[in-house]
Each structure stands twice: as C-alpha cells, then as structure tokens.
Amino acid sequence: MEKLPPRDVRYAMADEYVDVVRQLFASWDADAVVLDREKGIYADHTKVRPIHFKGEHFSVRGPLNTVPSPQLRAAFVQAGASPRGRRFAARNADSVIAIANGPSGIHPPSRRSTSLSSTSTNPCRTGWKPTENRVRWTNCSSGAAAKPCGSWSSTGLGDWSPRWS
C-alpha cells in the first residue's frame, strides 16, 4: 500500500478484518485438542475447519494455525474517536481508549457529546452486555505520551462508575 486509504475505507477494512479474526478463532471446536501421545494425535481434524473467507479486502482459507487461548479469542481494543471509529468500537471493541484533557475531562460516556452515547454508537445499544463495556481514558494535555488516568465501567444500562488507575 503506497498511501493511506481514506478513513471510511480503513474502517471497512477493519470491519472485514474483525470478521476474519472472529471466524478464525471459531474454526476450532472447544474439544478439538486431543493430546493422545500413544496414537500421535494432537487434535481431532474433524473439529478444526477452514473458514474459506473471501471479502473485498481479505481472502483467508484458515483455519487458525494454533489452538485458541482459554478466553477463545484476543481482546479487541479500539482507539478511534471519529463517528465512524465510535461505531466500529460499539460493534466490535471489548475496550475503548478515549482521550481526555486532564481528569476533569473524564466523564461517563452518557455525559460526553463526543462519546459512545448516541444511538448508533452506544455499546449498550449494539449488543454489548453493560458489564462488558469499558472505556479507558488517556491524558494527552501535557503534550507528552498518553498516560492512562482512569476508566469507566458500566454496571447497568446508562449507569457508569469510575475505576481509577
């Protein structure tokens, strides 16, 4: 890629990539690993499947080339703050990194006009369980590298409480 595609194209690529990754992690059944040393069998091949993904940006045969971890897949973290980035985060992210200009800028998402609170970007309205929502705030006001300064974790729909680092 010689130049960075426009933001909407990058997010279309990201949506497709997340779809590929989810399918790869789902390509192993939970009981696929046999570990039968006597027979020389590591995994039951009937419980590990190719995904045959063919999209606009990616083509992946699969399956995942290693056994999934105990949590079944990697955590998805999103740091985009644009409206498209927030929609992507609401649909896909386990954790969202947001920027605040100091501790006074840290609010529950429902109180921020540029937050995940609108209908199309509120994680509670896109299938997340309220206890899974996580926003991690960073402080960039000093001009130095971003430093974690707190997070908000929802305990119920619209009920956000602070968790400080």
Overview of this protein structure:
With 165 residues, the protein is α/β, with parallel strands linked by helices. It has two domains: 7-60, no CATH class; 77-163, no CATH class. Helices cover 18% and strands 24% of the residues. It is built from two helices and nine strands; from the N terminus they run αβββββαββββ. A five-stranded mixed β-sheet has the order 5-6-7-8-9. A two-stranded antiparallel ribbon has the order 1-2. Strand 7 and strand 8 (147-156) form a beta hairpin. The radius of gyration is 19 Å and the shape is elongated. The relative contact order is 0.12. InterPro entries: Diverse_substr_monoxygenases, Luciferase-like_dom, Luciferase-like_sf. Pfam families: Bac_luciferase.
Summarize the topology.
Elements: H1 7-25, E1 33-36, E2 41-43, E3 53-54, E4 59-60, E5 77-78, H2 83-92, E6 95-100, E7 134-139, E8 147-156, E9 159-163
Parallel strand pairs: 5-6, 6-7
Antiparallel strand pairs: 1-2, 3-4, 7-8, 8-9
Helix pairs in contact: 1-2
